[in-house]
Write a structure and sequence with these properties.
By secondary structure, this protein is mainly alpha-helical. The chain is built from 21 helices and two strands.
Length: about 450
């Protein structure tokens, strides 16, 4: 309700203080919980509404089959209004706001459909002009302003051309697949086979392929485990042999899953670089890779087996580099320094501590997924090394804290605070609580009791 009122106020031209900030936070919250909320919105939102199930919230330069980054929509709309069809877009923006304020939903739908039909023609013409002219292609990329301009506009035009069919697919698919079993594969295949028969005369072969591609992406969005889309491919081919699966139209399901895994690798690389937790991404990659290896026979050499091997290799190389350097980072923070090296009143850098804690959490997560991600040996070795070091270092740090003077005590206390955070991940919260109790006793200058000393 709040979103609707704020959007209506914007359409009326009312300047509500802080409305943009509030709307941004509300929309992020709505997307995070997957709550379907009708949006009043502006012309751009109405224009891009058919794309909603096919948008991603990741970076614009990360390629994902059949998808467009949400962040790319704004520059694409500017290009449409400025270069592609400025007159039509200007009239649309003006008239649709008036229709929205008047509550005339029929007129809104009519105007949006008309602009879609016109834009498809203009987009196809613009893309065709770049096919044999590299200079025109570069100019097109600059005008659109997204890292994958040609691919983004091509995808947009293809989705808009079959928007009504995709809307019908979305309505007829179940809202959620908790587990995608054989009976669900039969149900989904029957749905798409019926669409293929119904639309065979209305659409050319490429568009029928698009219906399957984008329709299956919509289906995968509703799966608790999207990699299970593979089961549709094996069910349709009645075999797990890759060559026979590749010969069916439902081979596109395998391509979707592989593309999603490659996209997850790109996300993992970005998240690791900035030091964010990645346990969910590791689980996605682990489950997807294991699913491909169990649902299909990848023993023979094939393009799919090579792509999966490349994915696993990229993840292993990336994780190995992070894992192997973590023990050194832990030692750098927790090593016992002589008093002369400690600046009076200084503390460990909170950012450094957070980065190392995130690295340790990464290693702890890798223990659950190490086999499928090909990092078993380095994970076990590094985890054992960190465990042994923490057991030794915490005793030394506790003893140093007991004998520290006022000048060095804050720094030694901050080291033990970091050790407590690390131990919470490596050992357990109970272990960390005992260590914290031992630190409190050491700060008071007394000897810890037996239970606390064991930490």
């Amino acid at each position: 309700m709040l979103v609707a009122e704020l959007e209506l106020a914007q359409l009326r031209g009312e300047n509500v203080a802080g409305s943009e900030l509030v709307l941004r936070e509300l929309r992020q919250t709505i997307r995070s919980v997957g709550q379907p909320v009708p949006r009043i919105g502006d012309a751009a939102r109405r224009f891009f509404m058919p794309l909603e199930p096919l948008l991603t919230d990741g970076p614009a330069d990360h390629k994902r089959l059949g998808r467009i980054a949400r962040i790319s929509l704004e520059p694409i709309w500017r290009w449409i209004c400025r270069d592609l069809m400025p007159a039509e877009a200007s009239v649309f923006s003006h008239d649709i706001n008036r229709a929205l304020l008047a509550g005339d939903g029929v007129k809104v739908e009519q105007m949006t459909r008309a602009l879609h039909d016109r834009s498809i023609q203009h987009m196809n013409a613009a893309i065709a002009a770049t096919e044999s002219d590299e200079k025109a292609r570069r100019r097109f990329s600059v005008q659109v302003g997204t890292p994958r301009a040609v691919e983004d506009v091509t995808t947009l035009a293809r989705i808009l051309a079959i928007r009504d069919v995709l809307g019908d697919v979305a309505r007829r698919l179940p809202n959620q697949f908790r587990m995608f079993e054989i009976e669900h594969a039969h149900q989904v295949k029957a749905l798409f086979d019926s669409f293929s028969a119904e639309k065979s005369s209305a659409f050319a072969a490429p568009q029928r392929s698009d219906i399957l591609l984008y329709g299956l992406i919509i289906a995968s969005n509703r799966m608790a485990a999207p990699w299970q889309l593979l089961r549709l491919a094996t069910y349709a081919a009645e075999t797990d042999e890759t060559a026979k699966i590749a010969a069916t139209p439902y081979a596109v399901a395998v391509k979707i899953v592989l593309s999603d895994l490659e996209y997850a690798v790109s996300e993992l690389r970005s998240e690791v670089k900035v030091g964010r937790p990645v346990a969910a991404l590791l689980k996605t990659l682990h489950d997807g890779a294991r699913g491909m290896r169990t649902e299909m026979d990848l023993s023979a050499d094939s393009p799919w087996s090579r792509r999966l091997a490349s994915i696993r290799s990229a993840v292993a190389n990336m994780l190995t580099a992070e894992i192997e350097t973590t023990p050194g980072c832990v030692r750098r923070l927790l090593r016992s320094r002589p008093a002369k090296e400690i600046v009076a009143g200084s503390l460990l850098d909170a950012i450094d501590v957070q980065e190392v804690e995130t690295r340790i959490e990464l290693i702890a997560a890798c223990r659950h997924y190490a086999g499928e991600l090909a990092v078993s040996e380095v994970t076990l070795r590094t985890y054992s090394e960190i465990t042994q070091y923490l057991e030794t270092a915490t005793r030394i740090l506790l003893d140093a804290l007991r004998h520290a003077d006022e000048a060095e005590r804050p720094f030694r206390h901050s080291q033990l605070d970091a050790a407590i955070r690390f131990c919470r991940t490596v050992f357990s919260p109970d272990y960390a609580a005992l260590l914290a109790k031992a630190v409190d006793v050491a700060l008071q200058g007394g000897a810890p009791d037996r239970r606390a000393a064991r930490a």
